[in-house]
């Protein structure tokens, strides 16, 4: 490698050595290799007429110089011409361009992640079959997440979900907004009908309304109920993932259920919770929209403090609006106000 020829003139960008290549060349770890690449770049930036020979004269090893220059050329930061002369591209142009390239790669990776996950879990669901293990114990939140993704990927028609404010639910709500907008797809990319009943405790989650709107764009229909006992995701009538992290924050003890009688029992519970739940519609504009949101949150069981946090309105203002709305609706209780609002089509 010490006798390697300089790079050919105006060599076009290509897939070149990575920091790992540099590390392997001189028995360095990747951090040390990347630091050396940075050192080479700073050296050529600071010299008006940089060259390979200049870098060697500064005591840098030839194999590392050649590999570093190749990597920097691949990143679009410089060109190496015949004779080893180095042309540094203006950093105010080349570095933003490199950053944009990395951002584009990151977007493409994020975009492909959902589809590739579907392929991954569909392949494993198909090979496992429905009769493989009536009950499978899960040990962690990560295993709950993986089992849920696998179950959804095997779906053909419908997902029923009910959720308490468990650690797993908190993790779901903490996901980036764009992930909530993803449509749930099963076998062959089939769009799955998706309904969820949330326990009213979920109303305490920060930015709840933003997340629910994103999930609605992804196809989820949601209701709230104060009687949700634990969390579960039920796919068609063949698989359920029961999340018991409400009782053990680590997720230990949660299960994947494939025994059909147990799945049917969970479906019956899900349907009962759905039928007795309250939707959280948010329609209208301006002040009308604000009052409808307050009514919807009231009907879902939210306290004044929760309504204030979710809407960004002071609690004192919420209390005044709640009293005014109850008077307008002729309601003696918050529950009656929600019922009257629903009957009049206000929520």
Descriptive account of the structure:
With 347 residues, the protein is an alpha+beta fold. The protein folds into 3 domains: 19-89, Arc Repressor Mutant, subunit A (Orthogonal Bundle), CATH 1.10.10; 131-279, Endonuclease, Chain A (2-Layer Sandwich), CATH 3.30.870.10; 286-343, Orthogonal Bundle (Arc Repressor Mutant, subunit A). It is 52% helix and 12% strand. It has 14 helices and 10 strands. The chain has helices at 19-26, 30-46, 52-57, 62-74, 91-128, 141-153, 167-173, 177-180, 208-217, 260-275, 286-300, 304-311, 315-329, 334-343, and strands at residues 78-80, 86-88, 135-137, 158-163, 193-199, 220-225, 231-235, 239-243, 255-257, 278-279. The strands form 2 sheets. It has an 8-stranded mixed sheet, with helices on both faces. The protein has a two-stranded antiparallel sheet with strand order 1-2. It is elongated. The termini are far apart. The model is unreliable at 1-15 and 283-287 (pLDDT under 50).
Quick tags:
two-stranded antiparallel sheet; eight-stranded mixed sheet; 3 domains; disordered N terminus; Arc Repressor Mutant, subunit A; Endonuclease, Chain A; alpha+beta; single chain; about 350 residues
List the helices and strands and how they pair.
Layout: H1 19-26, H2 30-46, H3 52-57, H4 62-74, E1 78-80, E2 86-88, H5 91-128, E3 135-137, H6 141-153, E4 158-163, H7 167-173, H8 177-180, E5 193-199, H9 208-217, E6 220-225, E7 231-235, E8 239-243, E9 255-257, H10 260-275, E10 278-279, H11 286-300, H12 304-311, H13 315-329, H14 334-343
Parallel strand pairs: 4-5, 5-6
Antiparallel strand pairs: 1-2, 3-9, 4-7, 6-10, 7-8, 8-9
Helix pairs in contact: 1-2, 1-4, 2-4, 5-6, 11-13, 11-14, 12-13, 13-14
